[in-house]
Write a structure and sequence with these properties.
The complex is a heterodimer of chains A (165) and B (290). With 165 residues, chain A is an alpha+beta fold. Chain A is built from 5 helices and 5 strands. The termini of chain A are far apart. Classes of the chains: A alpha+beta (165), B alpha+beta (290).
């Protein structure tokens, strides 16, 4: 069975890779391109650790085949920061300590970025529903939600006080 | 995952040829949110996966005469973002919107939700009450199939070898016609329906129901069209007596299973309650669509 040749744009860079049909996009990102930021938690679309943005839509990269990425534009967690400058969501995750083991964090960051790209002023309820497809088993969700709402405020040009160190 | 072949045809005819000509098991890939899970678990071992998303029209929403046409592989998020479609069929969009997380919404499709043939599929009851027609392509050309004729049992459909759903046609609602869908789950997100209920009603200027369709999900091996529930509504306003006969008719139609999400008694009672609540929303919406 010959491999498929896939041309795609990942984090703004044109990328090409070879894969077998049954390899998921997550497998291809991690094993073929060395982009190991996206994680495999459940492998069945329940936990959101593998979340990427494909043509503007949030998807689980574990439930998409690598071959399906042909001609698509993908953003992974590696593409969220601008060089050394962290995205406000990343900065606020640090300030709020919105992570412990960190395994779910890339998925949360990507999902939260997609939310704020679409909705500059989400309510807490909207934020919680949007992130319902991302599971965290150690931080608890409150700090994550605070971090995202604070990042939204920063992106609107407001200056929320940083949480006490 | 086990090895598999992958093809992404760009015409319906090519897809049919691939499906019909496959020597082993061939599966259609729309959003893959069920298919890939089944592949990984080993429940399904197809030899060929046919990705339909490169076929023009398979993703998209358009008006065609007196109908809305939705491409079979259109992701849920595109339906939720379509304001005109949401105005025409708020219940259908509610059903789709309840499928999984935002990540799943980025991929999940109407055809996948239907052809995966789960009794608990959230988009199916409102598609049925909307009078939705599935356009099925196959080796003998195209045929139009009412959505309720596709699923024949859990995991089973009436599609023949070589056939797949290309698009859905939903007749535009008439004046004072609207719909609603509610599902009950033990939490607020990310679970499978204990009961789902869709109601589509048409009212006269005085608020009396002139036409109705009621469909329940997750209470039988397939979705159930409840004719007695529709009869309970037609000719009536939504007063207490009507709600009571609707509730009773919905309960009588249930043949549920006992499982971890609910007992037979519980599902049956919830079906009646959901039918009342869903009807109330559908009546309100219909009254406002003057």
């Amino acid at each position: 069975m010959s491999k498929h040749h896939v041309s795609t744009v990942i984090n703004g860079e044109p990328m090409e890779f070879l894969c077998e049909a049954q390899q998921t996009l997550l497998d291809c990102l991690r094993d073929e391109m060395g982009l190991t930021g996206s994680k495999e938690g459940c492998g069945s679309g329940d936990c959101g650790a593998c979340t990427v943005i494909c043509d503007g839509k949030l998807v689980c990269s574990c439930l998409m085949l690598g071959v399906e990425a042909e001609g698509r534009t993908i953003t992974t967690v590696e593409g969220v920061a601008q060089g050394d400058k962290l995205h406000p969501v990343q900065q606020k995750f640090l300030e709020h300590a919105a992570l412990q083991c960190g395994f779910c964090t890339p998925g949360f960051i990507v999902a939260a970025k997609a939310l704020l790209d679409e909705n500059k002023n989400p309510t807490e309820e909207e934020t919680r529903y949007w992130l319902a497809g991302n599971l965290c088993r150690c931080t608890g969700y409150d700090k994550i939600i605070r971090a995202v709402l604070d990042a939204a405020a920063v992106m609107r040009g407001e200056n929320p006080p940083s949480p006490a160190a | 995952m086990p090895r598999v072949n992958y093809q992404a045809p760009t015409t319906v005819d090519d897809a049919v040829k691939l499906l019909a000509g496959a020597s082993g098991i061939a599966k259609i890939l729309s959003g893959g949110t069920d298919l890939l899970v089944q592949l990984k678990s080993g429940r399904l071992k197809p030899d060929l996966i046919i990705d339909t998303k490169r076929i023009p029209g398979l993703i998209g929403i358009r008006e065609e005469g007196d109908a809305w046409v939705i491409g079979a592989a259109t992701p849920g998020v595109m339906l939720s973002e379509h304001k005109q479609l949401e105005h025409a069929f708020p219940g259908v969009v509610e059903g789709v919107d309840l499928i999984g997380s935002m990540q799943i919404q980025g991929r999940c499709s109407l055809a996948g939700n239907l052809c995966n043939a789960s009794p608990a599929a959230d988009s199916v009851p409102p598609l049925i009450t909307a009078g939705g027609i599935a356009i099925v392509a196959g080796p003998n050309g195209r045929r139009e199939v009412p959505v309720e004729k596709i699923v024949t049992g859990p995991g089973q459909t009436s599609l023949a070898k070589g056939e797949f759903v290309v698009e859905f046609r939903l007749p535009k609602p008439k004046q004072r016609q609207s719909d609603a869908y509610l599902r009950f789950i033990p939490r607020t997100e990310m679970d499978i329906a204990v009961v789902g209920c869709a109601v589509n009603v048409t009212l006269d200027a005085g608020g009396t129901c002139t036409d109705a369709r009621v469909c329940l999900g997750a209470v039988a091996p397939t979705q159930v069209i409840v004719d007695d529930a529709a009869k309970a509504l037609i000719g009536h306003k939504l007063d207490d007596a009507t709600l009571q006969s609707l509730d009773a008719a919905a309960q009588r139609a249930c043949k549920p299973i006992n499982d971890k999400r609910g007992t037979i008694e519980y599902r049956t009672k919830v079906a009646g309650v959901l039918a009342r609540r869903t009807a109330a929303i559908a009546f309100d919406r219909a009254a406002s669509r003057a």
